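Hi there,

I know you've been waiting on this one. I reran it after we fixed the sequence typo, so this is the corrected version. Both the input and the resulting structure follow.
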Amino acid sequence: MEQRINAFEKGQNAMKAMYGIGAYLGKCSIEQELLHLIYFRVSQINGCAYCLDMHSKDLIATGETPQRIFLLDAWREAPFYSARERAALEWAEAVTKIRDGNVADDVYEKAAAQFSDEELIDLTLAITTINSYNRINISFRTTAGGYQVGQHKVQLVK
């Protein structure tokens, strides 16, 4: 597929708002490795090739194992995700795929048992932000494959 618009070049003013959220999330109390897992899982759900390429590389750079990356789509059946990771993944899926106008109480209760109120707000912000990036990249067909680890950190400090 051919890229329609390079939103990162043509939409610099609009993207600055997104970068500000990313800068905040980069300093929040949730483990960055967990956020990368969430970004990858949400990108799997949405089918965003650019984000899957980026977050797989970021996960590997943080020391994540290939096995955990490859099996993330089947995290419920895989034995090597912590209770906190499982709660975050279930919350991420529920927030990404809102059904019947809400997120189920049992999913919220699992997440609330693993995360403080502030962390749960930050986690939700991270989920909604990656969903926004997915939609931008999918809509404009951002080309996957060229991302270099840390490439977008430069933009976060602008």
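Quick highlight: Residues 154-158 have pLDDT under 50 and may be disordered.

Best,
R. S.
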